[in-house]
Amino acid sequence: MDSVQSPPFLRISPDLRQRIYTYLLCLDSENEITTINYDLAWPYLQNPTSTTFTYHQLDMCSCPGPASQGSTGKHGDHIYTRYVCEGPEVQIVPKNKPLWVLQQPNGPLNILRPATKKELDRRPSANIVRANKLIYREATPLLYRGRKFRFLTGHCPRGRYQAYATQTLLSRMSTFTQEQITDLSLIYQQHEEDCRWQDVKKAYVSLARFILSNLPHCRTLHILKCASGDGLGPFCKLFRREDMRILVRKHDANEEVECFEKEQFVRCIIINKGLVQYRGAARNEDALEDSLDEGLGELNW
Fold this sequence. Notes:
InterPro entries: AN11006-like. It is a single chain. Strand 10 and strand 11 (258-261) form a beta hairpin. By secondary structure, the chain is an alpha/beta fold. It has three domains: 21-42 and 89-256, no CATH class; 47-87, no CATH class; 262-301, no CATH class. It contains ten helices and eleven strands. The strands form three sheets. The chain has a seven-stranded mixed β-sheet. It has helices at residues 2-5, 14-25, 117-121, 133-144, 162-171, 175-178, 197-214, 262-273, 275-282, 285-298; strands spanning 33-41, 60-61, 78-79, 89-92, 100-104, 111-114, 148-152, 183-188, 220-225, 245-250, 258-261.
């Protein structure tokens, strides 16, 4: 009786269902980036426009965050300060809107282009995983595992907040979905995250901590790094996960991808900080990790 009442698709053998999921959801190429567009909304900035992005930009904000620190206007207006004021709202661009992909990173104004028909045809459809709970559990791993997710937006008033948006959007996913994510992709440059470099580093450190605590099977971070960018020190905490790796490609050269794993970072610390000090720290795992964090912060990686 149960089999008669079940939907026809669920009467197919599990092996055949897996083959169908694979055909519908799996990647065509291991090098393919899955781009997801997002928009930022600034409900508390007085005049957020995409033409005011400068290193020393001052924006008036009316959020309730720093009210206790005093205000400069009748309604509690103050100068926007990241990590004090409320951040922007992050929303996924609907799938019926045009998809923009990265042509080339270019500081304040990345060069984007509309996705080609071939790229649009390769976009996975998540509709099948919403059919019922059984299909959701069976198909979700194939939808997320091995897929390099890159969250991308256009020019914004105070930087594109890419790491912030990535963390915000991933945090909205269910625990089961978070467990399926294996790869993330970031554009590593100052303007991708904020006007001020000191705020950029905090955003990357926060994302690294989120990956460690919420994405248990994430093993690869793909970095598209501008030549003028700073080192990779903000991501060093990722190497608390033994099999973690960071793949780095520079946008201004047709060079091979550089792969960094924990062993390489440890060797650099040995060279940079001295073998004796490293051996002393190695007797204690926490001390070793602190040495990793401190040493990597000093290296231009």
